[in-house]
Amino acid sequence: MGYDKYLICVLGMGLVTYLPRWLPLALLPQRDIPQTLKEWLGFIPATILSALVAPDIFLNSIGDFHILQARFLAAIPTIIFALKTRSLGGTVIVGMFIYWLTNKLI
Amino acid sequence: MKSLSRAFILQGLTAALPIWVGYAAVGIPFGVLARQAGLSPIQVALMSIIVFAGSSQFIAVSMIGSGASILPIIITTFFVNLRHLLMSSSLALYLKGTSKGILSLFAYGVTDESFAVNLTKFMHGGWDVKRALVVNHTANAVWIASTIAGGYLGEVVPEGALGIDYALTAMFIALLVFQLRNSLVIVLSILSGLLSLIFSLLLPGAWNIVLASMIAASAGVSITYTFRRRKKGLDNGL
Fold this sequence. Notes:
- The complex is a heterodimer.
- By secondary structure, chain A is mainly α.
- Chain A has helices at residues 3-27, 35-58, 70-73, 75-85, 88-105.
- The mean pLDDT of chain A is 92.
- Chain B has helices at residues 2-36, 41-50, 54-65, 70-81, 84-92, 100-108, 112-124, 129-153, 167-179, 183-202, 207-235.
- The radius of gyration of chain B is 20 Å and the shape is globular.
- Chain B starts with a helix and ends with a helix.
- Classes of the chains: A mainly alpha, B mainly alpha.
- At the A-B interface, helix 1, helix 2, helix 4 and helix 5 of A face helix 1, helix 2, helix 3, helix 4 and helix 5 of B.
């Protein structure tokens, strides 16, 4: 792909990425949001995070279901650590260490 | 006044720290792949600045590498990044009274990671758009720098050193745990995770995230309303 084509490609990618990020922020804060929508949006953080995490820990690098892998095994102590300490930074560091250790052991 | 302004920057930086580690872990291998696909460091920088969306950048680079034309790349990018519509909508609840200009700047930095960190902070209180902007823009700077650096020093850093490629997973796990405030949310999270797994085996792009989270949230609303109606019925002696 040449330089000009590449620039058009990246600008197009930027536009279609920015618009969905921008539209709700441009429209919603100025309006009264219906109660039902507010409650629906209240569930979105937990459901999005879960939807992001599940494939990350249960699927392998080629996208097949694979439960006995380091990403899932390390997740269990990571979850327990997060529940006990409620510390984000601590969980990230401990999670990385457990994952590194699990990879060494299996 | 000066110490006050320093405090908000420091709080933003502290909140952003896990994201930096994760972005460096993902950005460096991205830089390596992009160079292998024939992109120059300037081209890598351009994409990271203009698009700023990790997974779609990986997909675009692999499409460019296999000779895809512009339109399919842009359409794929759109669908992969559509999930941010939901994230910005959730964030919008906490940004009433913020000027349009600031919101437009803030929108640029809405990623899975900045959304998760900022929304958790907003829910706990004591967070505002200034602190959130520090999170977004420092994360953005780390992303840009590490994707460029990847092209130069990629081969030097051993893959998976110190479990660094688990940083973002651990962060998402922690933030998910912090969200589990009652049994309904726990049930909905399990439902969303299961749906996401099933959809990711069936559908391309990030449809699994969009569909799973929307279906689970809708189930949450209908369960809430059913219980409320039943409670109202009981209160009325029915």
